[in-house]
Amino acid sequence: GSSPMSLWVCVILCVSHTTSLPITCQLNGNLVKRSHELLRSMGGPFPRKCIKDNVMVPFPAVAFRSDGTDVLTMLINETFSSITSLFGDRDLPAEWEPKALEDFQSEVYRLSDDLGHCAKSHFLERAKLVETYFDKLDTTLQEKNYSFCAWEIVRKELERTLRFIVEHSADFLWP
């Protein structure tokens, strides 16, 4: 397989030529950045005790290539909707900072709700790639019995996903 670095280089190249969307489909960049920070801060660095359980879930970079439509915004919406579903009503690690976790879930829900009002045409094929990515994260949780380390793997992967959105989707985020 390809290395995570080459994947991110591809992601950067695929998304670096994006176009602006109508203001109604722009995301609140501060909320996206805050969600990213909350996710990072609620658990600290990836725990050493989880390294043996770690799995890589490749981010679907090809889904985020721009074609001059609202596709990227819709996929970011799919990302936030999927995060909301992934966390759902499950028992989450007690080791995570409760206030940061609560704020993270609240902001992700708000972002998903805000974006849900945009038109969803031209994105179903790419949305399937994003859905598959989140299915793999969910499978990781199930296979590892929703253990602390399983949740840490999910948190690590989501942190990379949100970092990507923050760093490479500036045209779609209002300040």
TrEMBL record:
Chief location of this protein within or outside the cell: secreted
UniProt xrefs under SMART domains: IFabd
A GO CC term assigned to this protein in UniProt: extracellular space
Localization per Swiss-Prot or TrEMBL: Secreted
Annotated keywords: Antiviral defense, Cytokine, Disulfide bond, Secreted, Signal
GO molecular function, one term: cytokine receptor binding
Alphabetized SUPFAM superfamilies for the sequence: 4-helical cytokines
Protein name: Uncharacterized protein
Organism: Scleropages formosus (Asian bonytongue)
Family assignment from sequence similarity: Belongs to the alpha/beta interferon family.
Pfam family, one: Interferon
BP GO terms, sorted: defense response to virus
Region forming the signal peptide: 1-20
